[in-house]
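In full, the data:

***
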Amino acid sequence: MSYHVFIDDSGQKEYFFPYSRDFVDAPPSFKDYPDLWRKNYFVLCGVRIKDDALGLINDKINALKKKYFNTSKVEIKSVWLRHPRQREMRYIKRFGISAERLNEFGKAFVALISENANDMKLFAVVFDKRYYGEQKRMTAEGTPLLKSAQVLFEKLEYSIGDNIVVFDQMEDHLRIDKGAHERILGVLGKNHGLEDIYVSHYSKIIDIKFKKSSGENFLQVADVCAYSIYRQFVEYGREWCGDRVDGQGTPVMAMYDYFEKIRHNFAHNLANQQVRGIGMTCIPDVAKKNWDLLKRDPNMK
C-alpha cells in the first residue's frame, strides 16, 4: 500500500529566550507569560493519506470550499482564518463571505478532517525548546526543524507502506539545493550532525517534494492540524507532561477545542491505542505520559 504524507509546521523554528532551568523546574503559566510559550514550541505535522483515498477526500474539500466561497480556488491557512486583518483581506472582502459564515466554514473544515480519520492519519512532532542549553542549540541535534524532521521520518519508516512526502514550501523558492529544503533532504540522506535514533536508512520514503500550499488542499489540511497541535502545547503543554494534578494528585489536562476535534486522526498502536511515540512525539519526552487521546481520558478537562 502506498501513501502521500503532507507536512507543514507551526510555531517558531528559532530560539528567542536564553536557556533557564527555571522554565523546566518551575514553568510560569501561559496566562502570565503567553509570549514565552508561543515562542517555545515548534510543531511539525504530517498528514498521511492512502493514495486510493486522495481523490475522494480532495473532492470533498473542493465541494466544501465551493459551498462557502463559490469556488474551490481558495487557500486555507489557519493564520488567515484567525487574524482579523487577514480574515477581512483574504476571505471576507475577496469572496463576499460574512464573518459568521467564515467561522462556520472553519468548523466544517475541521469536521471534515475528523470525519475522514480512517484515511487521514496524523504524525506530529512537538519540539520543546526549554530543555535545550546554549551549546546544544548550536548543533543540528538542537535545531527544531532538523530534529523534528528526523523523528517524523523515523515514524514513517516504522509504518506500513511506502511514502511520498510533500512539504509545504519553506523558502521563497522551490529549489532543493538551498536553505531549509536542502537541510531537510540532508536529514533524509545522511542524518549529518544528528544522533542516530533507530533508523540508519529510510527505505519507505521513496520521494520528497516541496510544493506551494496554495495549489494543494492537503497541505492546507496539514497547516490547520499543525496549528491545532501547536496551540494545544502553547496553552497546555506543561499539563501534557503531567505537571497539573487534581485534589487527589491525579494528573489532569485541558484540551484546546480544535485539538480535541482532530484527536482521533492521530496514528496509533492498533493493539493498545497508544498515540504517544507514534502519532504524537514530544522532544524530549520527559514524562512519557500516555494520555488516551482516542478514547477520551476522564482526567482530561
Q: What stands out?
A: The CA atoms of residues 123 and 285 lie 15 Å apart. The first strand starts at residue 2 and ends at 11. The beta strands are 2-11, 41-50, 120-128, 162-168, 205-211, 280-283. The radius of gyration is 19 Å.
